[in-house]
Amino acid sequence: MFGYDANSASLSLISIYEISKILSSSLELQGVLRDVLNLLSSYLQMRHGLVALQGDGEILTVVAAAGMSPRAVASGAATLPRLAAERILSSEIPLVVQDIAEDPLLAEHNSPSDLAEGERACFMGVPIKTLGRPFGVLTVERVWSPEMTINFGSDVRFLSMVANLIGQTASLHNTVAKDRQAIMDRAHRGQKASNLYRPATVPYTMEGVVGNSRAMQEVFAQVHQVAPTKSTVLLRGESGTGKELIARAIHVMSRRRDRAFVKVNCAALPESLLESELFGHEKGAFTGATQDRRGRFELADQGTLFLDEIGEISRAFQAKLLRVLQEGEFERVGGMKTVKADVRIIAATNKHLEEAVSKGEFRSDLYYRINVVPIFLPPLRERREDIPPLAESFLRRFNEENERQVRFSEEAMELLMGCSFPGNVRELENCVYRTATMSKGDVIVDINLPCQTDHCLSKSLWTPELANSPAPPVIPETDVATGLPDRGGGGEGDDDDDLATLPKRERLVRAMEKAGWVQAKAARLLGLTPRQLGYALRKYKIEIKRL
Q1: Which pTM does this prediction carry?
Q2: In CATH, what class is 381-472?
Q3: Coil, strand, or helix at residue 142?
Q4: What is the pLDDT of residues 338-377, one digit of tens each?
C-alpha cells in the first residue's frame, strides 16, 4: 500500500510507469483516464477516484470515474465534491482532508455508511495543469484507521505526478482535436468552393469481417485498393486479429477469385516437411514418398497462396523461398524438372520483422520482397467499438448451432467493452462461446462472464510484448467455486477468531455480521470486491438481513 510500507517508493515507480503506458495507449481520453483510475484503485487502494476537467465556460465536469462506464459518468452517477474542487482550482495547490466526516467542504460528499467500525475516509485532491493555470482536478479517497502509520505527503506527491501526466495527455488530446477540426474545416471549405457534389461515402464492408471502427475502416480501404492488383501483401498484427480472414477477403475481391486460395502455416511444420509441402516431391525423394506429390505453389497456380507465420521460417529456407518469389519457378524435392507457377503471395506475421532483420534472423532481401504492401491489423483493444457487433455475431452463430436464444444484458456488454483481450478477436469468440455455454438462462448478465469469477485467463496471457496498453487489473487468487480469496489471511480487520480458518459459508456469514450486514464493509474484511461478495452470497443462498 503506497505510503504505508517500505516498498512504497518501488510501488510508486512501477505505478507511474504503468500509468504512462496507459496514457500513451490510445487517443480515447475518457477510456485511458478510466483505466488510470482503476489502476489507482487496484494497485494503491485508492477508491472513488475522479477526474474532472473544465469545459466550455470553465465549468468543471467529471470525465472519468473509477469503476464506472462512460455512460454512467455521463448520466451524473459520479459525484464531484464541488466546493473542494473549486478550492483546489483557485488555490492551485493540493487539498488533504484526513477525515471527510469532519470537514464542511465535503459535507455533500460524506458517505460513512461503507466504512467499518473505527475506519475513517481521507480525501486527497490535486490540480491538473501543464504550464499555465489548472484546468482540472484529480481526487481520490483512502480508507485508514488511527493505528496506521500514514504518510499523506507521500501520497500527495505521487498524485501530483499522476496529475501532471494527465494534464499533458489532456492537452495533447485537445491539440489533436483542434488540429483535426481545422483540417476538417479546410476540407469542407475546399469541397464547397469546388462545387463538387458527391453521394455520401458508404462505409467499407467485407463479407465475414466485422469492423465499423475507424481503424478497421482504414484496413478495409487498403484491402479494397490492393485486392484488384497483383501486388504481394504482408499482413501484420498480433495473434488473433483476423489475418487469415483478411487474406481470404483480398483473394475473393481479386481477379483470381475463381482460382484456388491455398494456405499454409509456416510455423506448424519442420523445415524438411515445409519444403515438400510448398514445392512438392518426386516419388522416392525420401522414405515414405511413394508417389509424386504437387506442392502448395502448384496447387495455387493462377490463384493465391497465403503464407501464415512467415517470420518463423529458418534463414536457410528463406533463401529457397526467395528464389521462388523472384523467379516464379522451383524444383520439387528430389526432382530435376523446373516447375513454373503464377501465384499471388499474401504473407502474414505477428513478429517484429525489422528487428529480426537487424539481428540477422531474417533476410533483408526476402523482407523487401514480401513487404510490398504492408497492412497492419489493429488489436481489439484499439477498436473497442467493434466488440459489441463482434460479440453479437459470435452469439448469433452460437444460437444457430445450439438452437438457443441467448442474449447479452447491457451490463455484460459494457463489461466486455472494458476488457483488454490480449488474444484479440479469437479470445473474444472463445469468451462468448464459453459464457453462452455455461449460462443457465437466456440472458447473459455481467456475473456470468469468466472475469467476474476469476476464470479469465487474460491476466496470465498478458505479456509486455503485446503493446503499450494497460495490463488487465491484478485480481487476488480466489476459490474457484465462490470467488473468496484462497489465502491464509481473512483480510484487514481480523481479530482472534480468524475468518480464514472457517468454512466458506460460515466465513461469509461471520464477515457480514461483523460488518453489520453492510456488504461493502464485509467485502473489505474478506479482501473481495463488492461484486465478488455478492456472487458468493448468492451461491451459498445467504439472505441479507436488514437491521
Answers
A1: 0.51
A2: mainly alpha
A3: strand
A4: 899 999 999 999 999 998 898 889 999 999 999 999 999 9
